[in-house]
Amino acid sequence: MLQLYSYFRSSAAYRVRIALALKGLPYETVPVHLLAGGGQQHGAGYRATNPQGLVPALQDGEGGAVITQSLAIIEYLDEAHAGAPLLPTDALGRARVRALAQAVACDLHPLNNLRVLRYLKHDLGVSDAQKDAWYAHWVALGLSAVEEMLARSPDTGRFCHGDAPGLADCCLVPQVFNAQRFGCPLGDYPTIARIVAECEALPAFQQAAPDRQPDAA
Amino acid sequence: MLQLYSYFRSSAAYRVRIALALKGLPYETVPVHLLAGGGQQHGAGYRATNPQGLVPALQDGEGGAVITQSLAIIEYLDEAHAGAPLLPTDALGRARVRALAQAVACDLHPLNNLRVLRYLKHDLGVSDAQKDAWYAHWVALGLSAVEEMLARSPDTGRFCHGDAPGLADCCLVPQVFNAQRFGCPLGDYPTIARIVAECEALPAFQQAAPDRQPDAA
Fold first, then answer.
1. Which of A163, A208, B26, B86 could form a disulfide with A158 if both were Cys (CB 3.0 to 4.6 A apart)?
2. What does the pLDDT average to over A1-9?
3. What positions does the domain GST C-terminal occupy (chains A, B) (predicted)?
4. Per the CB < 8 Å rule, is B149 touching A51?
5. In this predicted complex, what is the ipTM?
6. A68: which strand partners?
C-alpha cells in the first residue's frame, strides 16, 4: 500500500493527493503536522524518511523506496501506473505541461511557503501587512503569467492542457486554493478561474481537498 | 537551429546550457540582459516569447515552438534528442534524479533569485547584512539536505546518479557556483564538492560556465 506523508494544508501534498485520486490509486495518509510541537517535519523520525524535512513524501509500502518532491512523485506515479495519464505523449505537449506546473511549483509557491513566511516574520521582523503584501505580490506575478500562458495557447482546453486533467491542473488548483485562503483576488485570471471550476467539479479534486483529509483540524 | 534566451549569470539558463552541451546540441545564444535598462526580461518583446519574463526560454528556430522553465526544457531536450541521456530509464531512478533537481530548483534557487533579493532590499528595506543572511540561510538549508540525499544513497556515483552526468548535476553545479559567488562556505558538503569537481572537469560543464558566454560582462 502506498503511504503518503502529508499535511492537510500543504499545497505540495495536495498536488500529490489529486494525482493519486485522478489515477485511482489507494493510499494511506501518514500525517506530518507542520505546526504541532515546532513542526513534526523537523523531527529525526521524519528526516530519516525525507532529509529535506518537507512534505510530501511517498513510500511504496513499509520499508519500501521513498520518493520526495511533489512533481517527481506525480511523474513517478504516472510512469509506474497506466491509466488516466497526467502528461501528454508528445514531447512538446509534455514540455508545456511541465512548464505550467513549474511556473507554480518553482516560481510561485516556494516564495509563499510556511517556512518563508516564518523567516520574514521572525528573522526579518516584517509587519503582518508587509508579509501579506509579499504573499500577494508573488501570487499576482505568478498567476498573471500562468493566466497568459493559458489564455494565449490553443492547447488549453477544458483543463490546462486539452480536455483531461493532468500535472498542471494538480499544481494550479492547490495554488489557487491557497491564494483564496489568503484573500488574494482572482478576478484578473478568468482562464484560471474557469479551469479551476472544471477541476473542482471532479470527485478526484474534491477528495484531495484539505478539509477532506484525515488530519484536517 | 535552437535558440536559447539566456543571461550569462542566470543559474536556470546555466542548467540548460550544461544540458545542451552534454547532449552535443548546437544552439544560438539570444542574450537577455537582466540588469540593463531595468531588465530586458520585462520588455514587451521578451514577454511575447515568455510571459513569465524569466530566462531561460528555448525556441526551436525562428517562429518555432517556445519552451520555458529550465527543467521542462532539459526534459524536452532529453526526450527529443537521443544520445547522452540525462535521466535514467527506471521509474524510481528517474524520480530520484528529478527530486534532487527539484530540491535545488523548487526549494533553494527560487528564494535567492535576483527578483527576490531586490524585493527584500527595495520593498522590505532590509539591510545588506540581512539580505546576505537570507541568502546564506536558504543555501545552507538546501545544500545540507541535498548533501544528505546524496551521501546516504547507494545510487550516488561519480555524479549525482551513477557514473554519468544528468539532470541533477545540471542543477547542482550552477547552484554551487552561485553559492560560492556569494561567499557561502561549502566545507560541510563533501559529497556535493566531490561531484561538482567531477563535473567541472568535463568540457560540457566548462563550456556552459557564465564567464564563457557571449554576453559575459
1. A163
2. 96
3. 90-217
4. yes
5. 0.97
6. A57
